Amino acid sequence: MEPKDTTPNEDYKGFTNATCPFYPCHSGVKREFNCLFCYCPLIAYECPGQYKVFTSKNGVVRKDCTDCSLPHDGYRQSWNFIQKWVERPVIWSGKAQTRPLAPRPEAANPEPDASLPS
Ligand code: SF4
């Protein structure tokens, strides 16, 4: 059987729902606004995003991702960003973001991570 990842069609990497009542839900997006990762797959994992930490009314420590545009900035760029970080997921420690971030090991299909903050 032919591997599914040989298609040159990249339409699966993102879309924009411009009629969503919350669109645009994050500021700072410079490329196509990718809605595919509306619920970020990295919410429970360590990530390089600009999140803040808060405690919910149920006492659960959570990320506030309001200021993060990484899963939304460009179809291809955000797709590659997410693939890279879910390849070897590390459960989030519940701690605040630290800077500078440790470099992430290269993914199998690397592409310059232009979406990452410098
Ligand atoms: S900070 Fe950004 S990358 Fe991290 S979980 Fe939130 S939306 Fe995803």
Question: Could you list some keywords that capture this structure?
Answer:
binds iron/sulfur cluster, Zf-like, 2 strands, 118 residues, 1 helix, 10% helix, two-stranded antiparallel sheet
Characterization of this structure:
The chain has one domain. The mean pLDDT is 87. It has a two-stranded antiparallel sheet. The chain is low in regular secondary structure and 118 residues long. Helices cover 10% and strands 7% of the residues. A hairpin with a 5-residue loop joins β1 (52-55) and β2 (61-64). The protein has 1 helix and 2 strands; from the N terminus they run ββα. The structure holds iron/sulfur cluster. Residues 40, 42-43, 47, 49, 51, 63, 65, 68, 70-71 line the site of iron/sulfur cluster.
Summarize the structure.
By secondary structure, the chain is low in regular secondary structure. The protein contains one helix and two strands; from the N terminus they run ββα.
Bound molecules: iron/sulfur cluster
Mean pLDDT: 87
How many DSSP helices?
1
Query: What best-fitting shape do the alpha-carbon axes yield?
Result: globular
Write the layout of secondary structure elements.
Layout: E1 52-55, E2 61-64, H1 75-86
Bound molecules: iron/sulfur cluster.
